[in-house]
Amino acid sequence: MQTLRKKFPVLNQCIYANTASAGLLSEDLMEWRQGHDLDFLIGGSEMKNKGFAHMPEIKKTVGNFFHCKSENVALVPNFSMGLNLLLEGLSKDKTVLLLNNDYPSLNWPFETRSFKRDYVDIDGNMEENIRAKVKSGTIDVLALSLVQWVNGVRIDLGFLRDLKKEFPTLMIIADGTQFLGMEPFDFENSGIDILGASAYKWLLAGYGNGFYLVKEAVMDQFDLKGIGNGSVNNDASQRNNISFCKHLEPGHLDSFNFGSLEFAINFLDEIGLEDIQAHLNKLSKKAMEVFSELDLLEPFIPGRKQHSTIFNIKGDKKLFTKLTEEDVVTSPRGGGIRLSFHFYNTEEEIEAIAKLLKR
User: Fold this and answer.
1) Residue 242: exposed, middle, or buried by beta-carbon count in 10 A (0-12, 13-18, 19+)?
2) How would you classify the pairing of strands 336-340 and 310-313?
3) What is the spatial distance between Cα 128 and Cα 91, in angstroms, rounded to a whole number?
4) Which helix (H) or strand (E) holds 261?
5) 3-state SS, residue 350
6) Less Cβ around it within 10 Å: N or C end of the chain?
7) 34-270 CATH, one of 3.10.20.30, 3.40.640.10, 2.40.240.50, 1.20.1250.10
8) Banded model confidence at residue 13, pLDDT cuts 50, 70, 90
9) Looking at residue 303, what is its pLDDT?
């Protein structure tokens, strides 16, 4: 992973512990983007038409990477827009189970519509409490982030798989924005029915691109309303023959943004998600050790079976300012300071942050 750091020039200026806010732009992707826009400069509409025609290949790339049929992949500008389009077509008589203080773009679309709702806290007993709520028989939909944006708590994917087997009529909708790109993920063999993500964080694809993966078993529970010329690929004769995922693509799909997504996925594929996962496990273990030793984490965090590489440490504005002055890039979140580490980070950087915190 050390040689890959050279592809991210910002790492020469700081300790970048802020991927949970924005993943870094690599030199390789920047060069591809420059080439794309040069082609647009000299090719105009002819170049763009080729870009539009390439979208099915991008869907195949996304589908292959996450083990989902390409026809069940929808390309969207971001997670939030996709979820709002989906929920406009979901019956409001559903009872939805959410997590307290989950990401606003996940919870708010449910909360501003007339769904009946129940909640579970994000704590050491999260999975057990979710199961108890579902077992009560009143929950139709479970919607949650796979990794929590404030403190990095991750749901047990094995738990979701077992939960779906035990309650097959339960619809599970997940936000993978703070998860996808950290390790291999098999959508078809997961317990998740609908998975959406923006790709500007751990997937390192830049802004303006994301996707949804949808299992066929839940499609008939939606009456989607999204429609536009993009839904029919400029063929008006197909207006009454729109597939599920094309309802989530009512407008044109930008070859710059979604080409960036394709490039980023191929980049991660070349590195190998297994290798990325192994490195991130080391970083998570190191960060857990040093931050626990300094008593900077919520008490239940160290007792969780598995954690991501996102950590929220105790700290006020003064400490945040001090870290910034020492060229450590973080984010103030949830009353503390959020640090997040990707494959371009090192254990030595975590140790350097720990020394600063001890001072």
Assistant:
1) middle
2) antiparallel
3) 27
4) helix 255-271
5) helix
6) C
7) 3.40.640.10
8) very high
9) 93
- Count helices and strands (H / E) in the chain: 10, 12
Q: Report how far residue 57's alpha carbon sits from residue 262's, in angstroms, rounded to the nearest whole number.
A: 9
Packing angle, helices 273-293 and 347-358, rounded to 10: 20
Q: DSSP string covering 76-108, please?
A: ES-HHHHHHHHHTTB-TT-EEEEETT--HHHHH
Q: Please write the tens of the pLDDT for every residue from 113-140.
A: 999 999 999 999 999 999 999 999 899 9
Rounded CA-CA distance 5/118 in Å is: 44
Contact 107, 87 (CB under 8 A): no
Average pLDDT over residues 79-93: 97
- Strands of the sheet with 310-313, listed across from one edge: 310-313, 336-340, 331-333
The pTM (predicted TM-score) of the whole model is 0.96
The highest-level CATH class for domain 3-25+273-358 is alpha beta
Task: Check residue 250 and give its pLDDT.
Answer: 95
Per DSSP, the three-state class of 316 is coil
- pLDDT 10s digits, 43-71: 999 988 988 899 999 999 999 999 999 99
Tokens describing residue 52: 């539009």
Locate 267 and state its tokens: 């980049």
Q: Domain limits of the chain? A: 3-25+273-358, 34-270
- How big is the CA angle at 288 (ends 152 and 13), to the nearest 5 degrees? 80
Using one digit for the tens of pLDDT, what is the confidence trace for 212-254? 999 999 999 999 999 999 999 888 888 988 999 999 999 999 9
